[in-house]
Amino acid sequence: MAAGPLRLGVNIDHVATIRNARGGEHPDPVKAALLAVKAGANGITAHLREDRRHIRDEDIAMLMAALDVPLNLEMAATQEMLGIALKHKPHAACIVPEKREERTTEGGLDAAGQIAVLRPIVAALTDAGIRVSLFIEADAAQIEAAIQLGAPVVEFHTGAYAHLTGEARAVELRRIADAAALAAKNGIEPHAGHGLTFDNVAPIAAIPQIAELNIGHFLIGEAIFGGLEASIREMRRQMDLAR
Ligand SMILES: CC(=O)[C@@H](O)[C@H](O)COP(=O)(O)O
Ligand SMILES: NCC(=O)COP(=O)(O)O
Which residues of this UniProt protein bind 1-deoxy-D-xylulose 5-phosphate (predicted)? Predict the structure, then answer.
């Protein structure tokens, strides 16, 4: 058993993916976000991609107006996204790497390799009262970069863990656990997310230092079969059992 409550941030990006497939208003990501909160989400995550393939600018405005739980805005480290974050002032901004041609976020941000680019962005977000998170690989050099940048939070990319099996997954899990311990030792709050499902969430949820999981694609997909509230409640249950 581990210490401390584990928060669940529900990522509603792929409600917008379905909406955008027909170009109308349905299904509404804000309605999904409110339902997610009712089902036990402690916060909502939304990734405003530069290509606007799912979440759009107006969704961020509407989420800010509708939510009374924290909004975690995932954003690329660009001036455009910085301006949007400063305009809306979400609770948190998670800086993620982004490639136009990728199907989904393929790995963590190379914070160590772009300290000079990130420093003014992290500073501007922090000065605006936005809690900065860096979406990184579970790697000591990336945690060191987060320390240098003064980021209070890191989110470990669990995509590789989610796709591996057997001993390779166990190795990746240990890497994430070690990184969470290192981050926490240095005063940084570790989060985790990407590709988490009912089948793979428990070992990540059991890492004692991890304070928050951000989960989206699986929950929205699972909602097709049992409804969004049920999928979130079951994820919450799995997380609590592991803790
Ligand atoms: C950074 C991240 O992991 C999330 O944004 C999630 O992957 C949903 O967005 P995409 O499916 O567009 O990558
Ligand atoms: N930062 C990870 C996230 O928000 C959700 O990722 P996924 O569950 O949609 O893969």
Answer: 13-14, 49, 54, 104
